[in-house]
Structures are given as structure tokens and as C-alpha cells.
Amino acid sequence: MSKPVSSTEKHSGQDVKTSVDNVKPDKEMAINDTDGASIALGHSEEDDLYRPLSGVPPYDGRRLVTVRAIFTGAVLGSLVACANIYLGLKTGFGADATLFSAIFGYSICKLLESSKIPLLSGHFGPHENNIIQATALGTVGVGFMFISGVPAMYQLGVLSPSPQSDYGKLLCLALASGLLGLGIVVPFRRLFILRMARQLSLSFPLGTAAAVTIRALHTSADPSKAKENLKTISWTFGVTLVWSVVTSYAPGILYSWNPFFWIYKWGGHAIIGAVNWGWLSWQWSPSIIGTGMLIDLNASFSLLLGSILSWGVIGPSLVASGQAIGIPFDPKNPDLITYNAFIPTQFVTSPSPRYWILWPAVFMMLATSLATVLIEGKNFGALALYGVRSVSAKINNVTGRSPASGNESRTTQDRAVTLEDGIPDPVPKEHQVRWWEWSSITLLPCIVAMVAFKYLYGISPALILLNVFLGLIWALVIIQVFGASGINPVGTVAKGSQFITGGIARNPADKAISATGSKTVLVGATLSSCAASQAGELCQDFRTGFLLGTPARAQWHAQVLGTLVAVFLTPAIFILFAKAFPCITDATVTQCQFALPSVTTWRVVTEAILAPQFPISQSSWIFSIVFSVLGVAIVMLKRFILQKPNLKQYHVWIPNMPLVGLAMTIASSQTVLTLAIGSAFAATWGKFWPKSHERFLYPIASGGIAGEGVGYVVLSILQIAGVGGDKYGTMLGCYGGAC
């Protein structure tokens, strides 16, 4: 659902340099990933960004939730939702819709502004631009569950064999998660954006970048830039959509390249080891290359480091020492061996390298993400202190009691008032979300989940209520970490829900993993983590609205409408993908078009929690401890260097450890190498041709991401219709006969 690569103005493709000359690298910005990693994306402004931006015209009372804004935001959000399901199943993370929707919503609506089309023409300002962004973020929000917990349920066999028969169940789960996130985010807006933002250093980097970009777009006097952006992204979108469909009929020739496999097929059989380990293999994937173009070299090479460690160092060492084994998978060619198999009876005695490596990767990601949270521990202390002071002040007001003693109590009371009133709300009371609106939206999914999930999933209302409470707690964590660092730790909090729910649902007397236990853990963790992630994303959108002075009620209504679109759309997209590519829901398949890193992590963690004996070999858990300690040490070293002005320049050479761990959960180096190609290409482009890089980088990368995502929707339809590449195409050049 984290970058010093290029600045906000570069990503926008607009000539807005004069509007953002004061921009400097401050906080790293993140495209969401599903396991707590981050991918960098922009800069934040140097002036006081804890107050509304100057230069933005005040809200003039005109209607903002327009047909034009909602339709544009929903369409742009739907494109990102399609792309994110594809990207998430492939890589474990997805693109953020914030800047994409802000920039291209501006391009579309600016062209419609002077048209004569009813409902689509008329004045278009920065606040309506913000509404487009809010709608798009709502449309993307609940997609996280369909690249993590939901496919894991099918792989464990706890839902119907056919996903299309479960559309109602999936819709209900998405509805409950989305509405819960929508409800709890409203009171958090006042807390984390108005009252505690400065004290907790919550800059919400992407939300700030979007606000600065929107302001710059609407103060630019050159409308030709909007046309150029729209033209570039339209061409890129169309070309990459066609490319993704056409290449499916000859993927080994046009799409997936594996030079070592070609050498093997041409007679160089001695190179079979490099072939089986997947070395030097990449894809001409517009979405993955486009994502690589939007991340910095530190992020992409952190991913590459993780892949080299797992498939170039640790994996071969495990096989050579007998700690792990590979198995032949192609009867026609016994030389071809997979190191990705998951065979439950061999998890402890003779696991595959991928299973052995999975645990150090998961525990290291968990440890480093928790370290990031604990680094912000002073923020949680300040938040708790503020809560105590606020409650104390209100009790004194109600009872008429004065502070207990002298200057110290008076100072405490004054500080509480300062915390509450330090940042005035730019939104008048009549344009704020009504208490009955957000409270009813919060209460509704609780009731729906407690009643409906009992019959749909067989989960007790008490456990659902527990996960609703966990969703509230995780939202506090995600908003603080996301707001302070740009990292969305949704993968970490999801594992927390899995361990807590699994510890309660687990029956020590069970000799095997029960379907009911697996379903309880996965549904509960999906509900709580998805709601918390949704709250974090939407709080970031409220941050954009605060800086622009957008009415919060209009923003929230747009978020609601976008979420309702997502509730119906994203389950349908997932079902389409699952029907076209059955390996998504089948854990026994060793060759799949999708790496499924997050799905595999969710499934394996659930199995481990519920197993009578934790299924991990001794060597793997020992290495997990050592690797986790190393990861935490590197995180703390990076934090230390960032705080030292004379050392800060060296932080780019320190790897991003959550991303290293994420890469180690991906089944081969193919996806990671493709990302690195995109990142290296963008860096080279920016160095030698900076002007064209500034104008075209973001439109081309975004168009490629959206184009291939929608292209795979078309491809899925062709597969289901029986006219796909597997029937009428050729697998020539594909490793093991499959690409």
C-alpha cells in the first residue's frame, strides 16, 4: 500500500523550480511495501511545514467533492490498484498513489477546466486537486490484503478452492478493514497533525511533497506543462499495456532474459549451477523497471545486496554444507533444480535454501522495523505525557479544581494547553468531520465483523474485537513511524497480530495445524493490519490537506468514496489474477510467474505459530539471531551517522536493512536485478541529461507502472478466455519451460 533520488519537482515533471527553491533533502519518503521496508521518494520544504503553506489561496466555499474530482481520482486510484496487485505479488511492495494522483489529476482536470463538458468544466484549484488525491488514496488502500493475507489463506486451503466463489467473503473483509481505517483516522488527524506534529517531528514526507507539488502546479503560469505530462504518460501507458500483452506470447524471447540458460541450451552444460541459482536473469518489465526508476541507488542496491546474499552466498553455502537441499522439478531435464520448494516434512531436517533463508530474513525485518519504532520511543513517551496532561486539565476544568501546587503544576498545565493549541486548525468547524460521521463509520465495521465473520469465517466475536483493538494500536504505531520516517511498518505490525492471535487460537493438544486456527490468524491479522495501514495512508492525506487548507470533511468524504470503490474493485482484480494464474493460490507449485514474497511470509509464519513444534532447523534459528543483531546494529549506525553533520554524507553507503531482508524473501534475483536496472538507468539519465530527466522521469515511470498493471488485467482475461500466450504462444527461451 522513504529517497534522495530526485526531488519533488523532478518527479512532477513540471518546471516548478522557482516555487520550491527552498526544498532540501530532509526526510526520506516511502513508496509502500508490504513488509515494513521503504523506498525513497522526495524532499521536504525548509520553511515551517507545521503550519499551512503560504501562497495557497484560501478555500472560497465552492463545492470540492465534484463528479470531476471523484471520477478522476477513482480512475487514477484504480490504475494504481491494478499495478499494485501485480507489483505486490511480484515483488512484495507497491507504488504510492499520492504524487501520481496529484500530478496527473492536475494534468487531466486542467485540460477539462476550459472545456464545455457539463460537470467536468469550470474552475480547478489546489483544494479540488487534493480531493482527487484523497479519492485515489482511498481507492488504493485495502489492496494490501490481496498481496499478503488473502492469497495465504488460499495457499493454506482455508477458503474455497475457487476464489470467485468467495467474492462476498472477500468484499466483506475489505469493507470491514477499509471502514475501520476510515473511522479511526479522523480523531488521529487532530492529534498527530495539529497537536503533536511538531513535538513528534511528524512531517509525513510524501504528504508534504504532494502539498508542495500541488502548490507549485497551481502557481505555474505555463499550462503547456500539463499537456506535456498528460501526453507523455498516455503514450507510455498505452505502449507498456500493449507490450505486456504482446510479450506474453513469446516471454522467453521478448520479456524474461536468462543468458546463462541460453548458454546451457547451446551446449555449455557446465554453467548449470548458475542457471539453477538464477544468476544474471532479468525481465523487460515496464512496471518493475519504472519502480526502479523512482527509487534511489541506496534502496535498489540494498535489495540487490539481499539477493546476492541469499542466492549467491548463503544458499550455495547451505547446499554445499548439506544444511539445505534442492530438488529436480523438470522430468524432461533432471539437471534443472529448484531451491524454492516448501515441503513440510523436511522443514527441520532438510529444508530448501529458500525456506532456510526465509526465517533469518523475516526475523531481521521484524527486528529492524521494531528498532525503527523504538528509536522513535521518545515520541511515544511524549504522546503518553500529553495524554496524561490533557486528561488532568479536563478533569480540573470539570471539577473546578485548580492545579495542586505552585509553579510546577502551572507549568505542566500551560504546556498541555500549548500542545493543544500550538497549531491552529486552518479548517473552520463547519468544514470538519462531524463526530457522528466518523464514530458511526468506526462502529459499523466492528458490528459487521463481529457478526458476519462468525458465519463467513467461523471466527468468534471476541477474537474479532481483539483484532479491532489491535488495529487501533497498530494505527498509532504506523502513523508515528510513517509520519516521522516515511516508512510504513505494516509488515511488522501484521506479524505482531499473527503472533498475538495465533498465541490465543493455538491449541497445544493439536497434532497438526488446524484450518480453523489458520483462518483465525490470517483473517484477524488481515483485518487489524489493513485497517491500521489504511489509517496511516489517509492520515498522510490529511497532512496534505492541512498544508493546503483543504476542508477536512470534503477530504474525508472523498476518502470514503474511494474506499467504497476499492471494496468492490480490488477483490475482483485479485480473483481475475488468481483465475488466470492458479499458482498464486497454490503453494505446491514450484514455478510461478509471481515471486509472492509477502504471501509466502504470511503463510509460513502462520504455519510456524500454529505448529506443535516450531518448524525451523537449528542452524537457521541461530543464524536468525545473529543476522537480526547485525541488522539492528546497522540501523542504529545509520541513525547515528544521520545525526552527525560531518558524517551525514556517508549514510547513502549504509544498506537499508529492511530492504535487504525483503529481497531475501523473493524467490530469485530476477526481480531485484530488474529493479536495479531501472534505478541505475534513472541515475545515469539524471547525471548526463538532467533537463529531460526532470521533465520526463516521473511521467514515463508512472505510465509504465500503471500500463503493465492494467495490461496484466487484460492478459488475465485472455488467459481465462483460452487465448493466452500459454496456448497460442511459445515458451522458447524460458527456464524450465515457464517464464
TrEMBL record:
Protein name (Swiss-Prot/TrEMBL): Oligopeptide transporter
Main localization category: membrane
Subcellular location as annotated: Membrane
UniProt family annotation: Belongs to the oligopeptide OPT transporter family.
Region (Disordered): 1-28
Record field: transmembrane: 69-87, 134-155, 167-188, 235-257, 263-282, 294-314, 356-375, 438-457, 463-482, 560-581, 620-638, 659-684, 696-718
Superkingdom of origin: Eukaryota
NCBIfam families, per database record: OPT_sfam
One CC-aspect GO term: fungal-type vacuole membrane
GO MF annotation terms: oligopeptide transmembrane transporter activity
UniProt topology in membrane: Multi-pass membrane protein
InterPro entries: OPT, YSL-like
Keyword rRNA processing applies: no
Alphabetized UniProt keyword annotations: Membrane, Transmembrane, Transmembrane helix, Transport
